Amino acid sequence: MDPEVAAYLKRILNTIGILFFWMCINIAFGIMYGYAYFEQGLHIGNILFYLWLLISTPLVIWYLRKIWKEQVHFGETLND
Question: How far apart are CA 3 and CA 23, in angstroms?
């Protein structure tokens, strides 16, 4: 496999892994543990969950933009 293709595939897998991990954390604490819902009023768990969500979302977007900022150059041009 070409090194450029391997680097591009590594970026794709890294992006999928980061997003999957981040979404699993948010789903687990928000939906499974109920911190996303205000069923019995506002509690400290709700505040911490939404604070985490507001801080982690821009950080994940920033990190993914940092990963994808650098371009991968696929091979040289062919000169006949």
Answer: 30
State the Cα–Cα distance between residues 3 and 20, nearest whole angstrom: 25
Ramachandran area for residue 42 (φ above 0: left; ψ -120 to 50: alpha; else beta) = beta
**42 is written with which tokens?**
């506002």
Q: What are phi and psi of 9, to 5 degrees?
A: -65, -35
For residue 36, the 8-state DSSP code is T
Summarize pLDDT for 24-74 with one digit per residue, the tens.
Answer: 999 999 999 999 999 999 999 999 999 999 999 999 999 999 999 988 777
User: Which runs of consecutive H residues, i.e. helices, occur in 28-73?
Assistant: 44-69
